[in-house]
Amino acid sequence: MSREKTLALRKNVKPFENSELKKSIVQLINTIPPFFILWFLAYKSLDVSVWLTVALSVIAAGFVIRIFIIFHDCTHGSFFKNKKANNITGTITGIITLFAYEKWKREHNIHHATSGNLDKRGVGDIWMMTVEEYIEASPMKRLSYRLYRNPIVMFGLGPALLFLVSNRINRKGAPAKERNNTYLINISVIVIYALMIWLIGWQAFAIIQGTILFVAGALGIWLFYVQHQFEDSYFEDESEWDYVKAAIEGSSYYKLPRVLQWVTGNIGFHHVHHLSPRVPNYNLEKAHDSTPPLHKATTINLRKSLESIHFRLFDEDNKSFVNFKEIKHLLKNSKQTVNVNSKNSSFESK
Questions:
Q1: Distance between CA 106 and CA 126 in Å, rounded?
Q2: Which domain range does residue 214 map to?
Q3: Helix (H, G, I), strand (E, B) or coil at 313
Q4: Looking at the 3D structure of the chain, how many domains does it have?
Q5: Which residue, of 27, 130, 150, 290, is most buried by count of CB atoms within 10 Å of its CB?
Q6: Is 266 left (phi over 0), alpha (psi -120 to 50) or beta?
Q7: What's the pLDDT tens digit per position in 255-295?
Q8: 3 state DSSP class of 124
Q9: Cα(64)–Cα(212) distance, rounded to whole angstroms?
């Protein structure tokens, strides 16, 4: 994309970067109170049926996703114009969603600055290996990667590891502001959870909050996964990488039914979000509709998105994803080459 087209595209999106106080407050009102109401109803329904409790908890999990989108906007400074308001709201919603605000803000901003860059992977993204990297990796590393990319591990164990481990620990060398924010959120969560267990018992709390966190976590990981891991997604080496291309070609437009679009806070317009993170979630659809070049982004629906489960490795030569079965012959050839080289080396030493 030429520099002129890039500048024109950003200029077209610029008007949608302004947050509106009224819309932000309305979103807080129609998101956070309903979550707590559903939580209360789930608890009261235990006297009727545990399955009704689980059903209400699943619905509440949808609101946790929506709360997370508010948290997410705050990390970009796009939910409110005021920086302090974003930080306070982000920290409170971080307590509800079990995400460390300052820690995640740093990691996610790195993700935005490096998305699609093969030379700058590893922070704020999903572990992805290229075919060449996988072939050259040790058997143990291959096993670790296969386990990581297994849907049962990623979407089943992933939420627990995310909420209980990753989000609770500060990185080495983190500044005081980031460390203290994580401590504040961790202590708040411990106090609130302990109080709730004391009030209603650990069984009831485990059924309701456990269901909410598992469903919300699995769906959140799925959204993040599918919006960057799709057929013909954009990945390039540093020398060829381009921010705008990475945003439009490396982030999908996940076209969801209206109800799910509302629950997920328009994050399906991920290409718009990556092009301009300052656009608040309630303006993403408008920015997309008003900017024709953005209509060229890869569009996937619910059915199409399920195909991405089979995407395991990125093939740099063909610029597409492949599964493990498709590279079996390459692994076999690699082993044969290693054996031949080993024999030759042994022969020469004799």
A1: 16
A2: 20-339
A3: strand
A4: 1
A5: 27
A6: left
A7: 999 999 999 999 999 999 999 999 999 999 999 999 998 99
A8: coil
A9: 8
